[in-house]
Design goal:
Aminopeptidase; Alpha-Beta Plaits; 2 domains; 9-stranded mixed sheet; 5-stranded antiparallel sheet; binds (2S)-amino(hydroxy)ethanoic acid; binds manganese (II) ion
Length: 415
């Protein structure tokens, strides 16, 4: 890498200031952020990002599922762009850094290149992916998944939230249903900077995680049906209590997670009890299951265990159960050359580092299907994320951004 690039320095204070200004949009009393996908707050975050990108001389396009691409031209704009970015939507009790860091780090890379008057050969694009979190609209990573051709655009635009509002209508409402085609264009490489969202880097006192890939996931929607009845006169022996059955299944989900160690994760994060009245025996329960494992065969074994457990509990209790697998992606390795580019950036910066597999899903997982892809992790305090107390050190965020700069340049500059 030419020496001139070694002298490019990102501005950590500017990066932190942008993160803190963005975090004010959807700020919660506990210091977190609630900026659910395609809400007015998401629109405000998008508008702020676009304003900053235009101030940095970028041209901005929005595609048919609301993905935003801010393009900094290069010497040869016929070359496929080197992309970097992440997401601006958050969990309901999200933090200031999940997603936002990758987008602001991409913006800081562009700002740094502008300060130095440095021209890359290939164009550089900062991207914001729609609905990465999968909390308001499921599954996760819908924008990047549609861009990568994993999801059908029409089907995703018709997905609804719990109030029956569709992605398509919400994109129109906030003014982000863009004209650009979704995907179908070459990407030179994709890099995403993100907080680790787990405890490993902090525990080992490492500044940079060189992400070699992401673990696989299976998401389920399970419905248990019994019979609503009066909590008073109905004898225990005559009950078909859907919540008792669901509770036993939820316990099994956790047991399956412990059974498939090392590596397995098993979570029930969303439960709906109907009619949810304290003196009515629940007739219907809906709950979600999130399974993850770095090994595909182990993820398959977890699937088998779950179906067996639900079947056995249904038979014992006389309840009806529907187990619907909602989403699956296999463990995803990242591109060897991109991993090396991240490693070189860490070494160039003199940052302590280690290889790591991502426990979380990221837009990079779907981008890895259409472009050479790499990720850079930095530690977060206590390994906590998807929580309003999520925190990261300015110095670590700056280090990750410096590594991102070098990784992007390694692909955007010939020679
Ligand atoms: O669920 C995930 O891993 C990500 O936060 N969407
Ligand atoms: Mn994220
Ligand atoms: Mn997240």
């Amino acid at each position: 890498m030419p020496a001139v690039m070694d002298n490019l320095r990102i501005n950590g204070d500017r990066l932190w200031a942008s993160l803190m200004e963005l975090a004010r949009i959807g700020a919660t009393p506990k210091g977190g952020v609630c900026r659910l996908a395609l809400t007015d707050l998401d629109r405000q975050g998008r508008d702020l990002f676009i304003r900053w990108c235009k101030e940095a001389g970028c041209t901005v396009t929005v595609d048919g599922i609301g993905n935003i691409f801010a393009r900094r031209p290069g010497r040869d704009n016929s070359l496929p762009p080197v992309m970097t970015g992440s997401h601006l939507d958050t969990q309901p009790t999200g933090g200031r850094f999940d997603g936002a860091y990758g987008v602001m780090a991409g913006l800081e890379v562009v700002r740094t290149l502008n300060d130095a008057g440095f021209e890359t050969d290939a164009p550089v694009e900062i991207v914001v992916w729609t609905n990465e979190e999968g909390t308001r609209f499921s599954p996760a990573m819908i924008g990047s998944g549609a861009f990568a051709g994993v999801f059908d655009l029409g089907a995703e635009l018709g997905k609804t939230d719990l109030e029956g509002k569709t992605i398509g209508a919400e994109l129109e409402r906030i003014g982000y249903k863009g004209a650009a085609p979704v995907g179908g264009r070459k990407v030179g490489a994709y890099f995403e900077a993100h907080i680790e969202q787990g405890p490993i880097l902090e525990a080992e006192n490492k500044t940079i995680g060189i992400v070699t890939g992401a673990q696989g996931q299976r998401w389920y929607e399970i419905t248990v049906v019994g019979q609503e009845a009066h909590a008073g006169p109905t004898p225990m022996a005559r009950r078909k209590d859907a919540l008792v059955g669901a509770a036993r299944m939820i316990h099994e989900v956790n047991r399956i997670g412990h059974k498939h160690q090392p590596g397995a994760c098993a979570t029930v994060g969303h439960v709906q009890v109907m009619p949810n009245s304290r003196n009515v025996i629940p007739g219907r329960v809906f709950f979600t299951v999130d399974f993850r494992n770095p090994k595909d065969e182990a993820l398959t074994a977890m699937d088998r265990d779950l179906r067996r457990a639900c079947q056995a509990i249904s038979a014992e209790t006389g309840l009806e159960t529907e187990v619907k697998e909602f989403w699956y992606f296999a463990p995803t390795p990242f591109d060897a050359a991109c991993i090396s580019a991240v490693r070189r950036g860490a070494e160039l910066g003199g940052y302590s580092h280690r290889d790591i597999i991502s426990g979380a899903g990221h837009d990079a997982v779907y981008m890895a299907r259409v472009a050479p892809t790499g990720m850079i992790f930095v530690p977060c305090e206590g390994g906590i994320s998807h929580n309003e107390i999520e925190n990261a050190a300015p110095a670590d965020l700056a280090a990750g951004c410096a590594v991102l700069l070098q990784a992007v340049l390694g692909r955007a500059v010939k020679g």
